[in-house]
């Protein structure tokens, strides 16, 4: 045991002596190592700086891209407008079923492409449900490009409302009295009426403006004017129509307008002769809380078929005074006369009284209550009714 211990100590001492005998690195070698390490550190710093530069550039690019996208989105939001209107009705008839109707739900969408070029559209759902066997329709009422081609003059190209009457172009429920639209403009004109074509608008003098259009026309061989609207839905266009209006608004509170439309063949080729002319004039005058509207319209249709049916001449007129009791509450009365084919073998003469109230919750939300009284009832159906409505626009 003692000999083994002495042997181990001897081996260990020999190893230590051998290590001590190894030569130490020279100063030049140590300096070279230090220089190599310094160069490596310098290279790492350079790489780090390049990485920082790339990260900063990437951050700037991301920020610029995000800013650009936000700017484009803000520009789109600023130039694109959304609006709409709608109305719900309740009609309590004297001699037929009462009705509740989500009469209209309409959405507007417009976009300003430039200072002189813009787009406008209007889509409507009528009577809540559309489709086979359903009471309603989904309709594209307007879709046109408007171009201000010179100062004070513009042109509309596409599908637009015909410039005729009081309600055809302005029919949001908060802009008129009565739950239902007046029958003269609905049946005779017939509002709401749109076609596809081109229309020029402009101002001739201060307060004096014009509209002139060439567009698709009606199609009927019975002179039932309202049913002749084709609504730009694969519309037969063998014969176009021409519309011209002049309007004066040079006196505060006063509007005077006259429209003439001519279509050489209202049957679109179904009959030998069927030229038709619509003439309409109206006046609106408002002073303080009092306002009055008056309108007259007539269709003159040539052709043996229309003469035999007694529908070669269809006309109507109404007068409507109203008074704003307060800023929110208004009362009105309307007297109307018109004749119309009404699905019968000959035209029928109507006399109608409407009277009631409007109450505006806000300038664009209105509640309505009114009564419709048919003075004569030559059709055998009593359409007298008490009506309630709510309407809005935005």
UniProtKB/TrEMBL annotation:
<feature type="coiled-coil region">
    <location>
        <begin position="34"/>
        <end position="61"/>
    </location>
</feature>
<dbReference type="GO" id="GO:0015288">
    <property type="term" value="F:porin activity"/>
</dbReference>
<feature type="signal peptide">
    <location>
        <begin position="1"/>
        <end position="20"/>
    </location>
</feature>
<dbReference type="InterPro" id="IPR023614">
    <property type="entry name" value="Porin_dom_sf"/>
</dbReference>
<dbReference type="GO" id="GO:0016020">
    <property type="term" value="C:membrane"/>
</dbReference>
<keyword id="KW-0732">Signal</keyword>
<dbReference type="InterPro" id="IPR033900">
    <property type="entry name" value="Gram_neg_porin_domain"/>
</dbReference>
<dbReference type="Pfam" id="PF13609">
    <property type="entry name" value="Porin_4"/>
</dbReference>
<feature type="domain" description="Porin">
    <location>
        <begin position="104"/>
        <end position="377"/>
    </location>
</feature>
<keyword id="KW-0175">Coiled coil</keyword>
<protein>
    <submittedName>
        <fullName>Porin</fullName>
    </submittedName>
</protein>
């Amino acid at each position: 045991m003692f000999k083994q211990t002495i042997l181990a100590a001897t081996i260990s001492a020999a190893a230590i002596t051998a290590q001590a005998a190894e030569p130490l690195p020279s100063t030049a070698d140590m300096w070279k190592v230090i220089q190599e390490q310094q160069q490596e550190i310098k290279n790492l710093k350079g790489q780090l700086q390049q990485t920082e530069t790339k990260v900063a550039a990437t951050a700037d690019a991301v920020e610029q891209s995000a800013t650009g996208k936000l700017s484009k989105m803000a520009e789109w939001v600023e130039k694109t407008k959304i609006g709409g209107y709608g109305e719900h009705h309740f009609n309590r008839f004297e001699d037929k079923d009462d009705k509740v109707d989500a009469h209209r739900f309409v959405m507007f969408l417009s976009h300003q492409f430039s200072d002189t070029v813009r787009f406008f559209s209007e889509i409507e759902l009528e009577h809540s449900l559309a489709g086979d066997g359903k009471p309603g329709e989904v309709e594209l009422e307007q879709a046109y490009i408007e171009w201000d081609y010179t100062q004070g003059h513009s042109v509309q190209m596409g599908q637009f409302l015909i410039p005729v009457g009081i309600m055809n172009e302005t029919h949001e429920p908060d802009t008129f009295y009565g739950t239902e639209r007046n029958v003269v403009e609905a049946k005779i004109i017939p509002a709401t009426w749109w076609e596809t074509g081109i229309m020029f608008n402009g101002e001739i003098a201060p307060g004096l403006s014009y509209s002139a259009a060439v567009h698709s026309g009606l199609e009927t061989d019975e002179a039932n004017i309202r049913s002749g609207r084709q609504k730009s839905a694969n519309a037969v266009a063998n014969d176009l129509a021409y519309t011209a209006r002049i309007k004066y608004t040079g006196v505060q509170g006063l509007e005077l307008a006259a429209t003439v439309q001519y279509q050489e063949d209202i049957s679109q080729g179904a009959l030998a002769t069927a030229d038709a002319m619509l003439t309409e004039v109206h006046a609106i005058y408002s002073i303080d809380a009092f306002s009055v509207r008056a309108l007259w319209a007539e269709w003159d249709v040539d052709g043996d078929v229309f003469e035999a049916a007694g529908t070669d001449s269809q006309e109507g007129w109404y007068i409507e005074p109203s008074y704003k009791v307060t800023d929110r509450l208004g009362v009105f009365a309307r007297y109307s006369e018109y004749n119309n084919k009404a699905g019968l073998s000959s035209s029928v003469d109507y006399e109608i009284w409407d009277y009631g109230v409007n109450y505006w919750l806000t300038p664009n939300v209105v509640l309505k209550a009114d009564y419709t009284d048919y003075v004569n009832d030559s059709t055998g159906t009593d359409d007298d009714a008490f009506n309630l409505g709510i309407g809005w626009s935005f």
